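ugh ok fine here u go
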Amino acid sequence: MITIRMDRSGFIQIITGVIFTQNGDRILNSSKAWTIKYALLNMAYFAAFCTLHAYAAVYLLAQGFSNTEVGILLAVANVVSAVCQPLVAGLIDKPGPLTNKNFIIISVSFIMAGSVLLMFVQNNKAVIFLVYALIYMIQFAYQPVMTALCFEYRKAGCDIFYGLARGLGSAGFAVTSAFVGGMVEKKGVSVLLVVNTAMMMLSLIVILMFKKPEAGSPDMINKEADNDVRENGSEAAASGEAHNNILEFARIYPAYTLFLLGVICIFFSHNMINDFMIQIIRDLGGAETELGYSNFLQAILELPVMALIGLVLKRISAAKLLLFSGVAFFVKILILIFAKSMTAMYISQSFQLFAYAVFIPAAAYYVNETMEELDQVKGQAFITSSITVGGVFSNLISGTILDRLGVKPMLVTGTVVCALGAVIAFIAFTALKHHRIPVTSE
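structure:
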């Protein structure tokens, strides 16, 4: 069993046995372990996400797919994912056996089985297309459920430092990318499937450790660690009604609904860079190793921002942070239009610090502070669905432009669409009304 011990210098050491604090107390099932468990779940998820999503083009090109075919495959997976995410969220929001935890268990099991199957499939593009699209879609589908899981358990009294845990997830992505980039060059793309399978196994082990505290237990008492959310008004009231009709949802949350359109445009460019990064890097004279370094850089920079986002939100609203991140996304892709070397690529990736690293936690907090509790899983899912829809259009358009015109025209297209997204987000948050959850006195 994984265990963690604090030494005299305060550093964490991973050993075998049970989990102890510095004083020797067992904490595996105490509230002190919740951030550790949720962080491990995030690290495993994003390590697998790295192999399946960040290296999708690398894997598929090695299997004989063209850029256009890669775009079509990813677009199909994203379309299905975008449709499924709100549907799944609606089911989870309703009382019943499909909980956040159970959906993650199901998703992890399917992805693990699909990855193992791909290890034994050779020279069969039809099977590879179907299986890869399926597991790619499923992994996207349970990403918002991961966020909803955190806030669900926080409301149950579990101390989960969301920003830190999510930042460590990005660190898991970073370390994995730095490792697999060189390994793919040396050993081939099968490395990606092995790592993905291992991370899904770890995810399954960790999620099975999530046992919600029973009423009356010490963990049900609200902890001081929840203050970073409460002080920003982001703990939703337990009351309220679900708005499952899309038109009613849009009427209640007009600013958020228009903002989703901006998210689609912004993540058109973001997905363009991520999905076709290997072609951008090859155009600059790099290869898979440089792809690993580039992904490592952008992901590791997310950790400090996500870990400190709770403090930032005490001074700057989530809506303003989302606008700030939109501008950063624009600058990030704009730099690539004029890039002549890998140095410019690394500079562009450094803007992840202000773009994606700010957007993801700020969006999660915005949903949690402006939506009724029964709408929050849907709210998280709509964010991910919008990101996914942006990916759909990016996959379909970018692959074709890349094959016919090249890298630079693709990047110019992405820059224009991203600028449009930033403008839409600005209008949404400055001209439309934000829904606010009534604050009840205690």
